[in-house]
């Protein structure tokens, strides 16, 4: 009979400790979830960065003239249809980036628009090569 009482008491103590530990872990998890609610998903950010890199490379993002005088002096290069298409895609990428940076669109919408833009650029193939 003494063993039954001893094991019952030990069981109650163990169950109490487990319940306290569970409550403590639940509070910690809820705290972490509250803190990370407004943090964008890490893998989506990484994916977005990669898409921007691919788009900048495909569109030769750094070759865009900074002002109209430069564009006019390079009219033989920037006068083709593919070059006009490339410049419009670059402008679209800049617009998307500025909207995201200003908080006008969410990371999910930004990522989706980048997917669409990337698909459009890839469908045109190598037509964005420099015609010199």
From TrEMBL:
<protein>
    <submittedName>
        <fullName>Uncharacterized protein</fullName>
    </submittedName>
</protein>
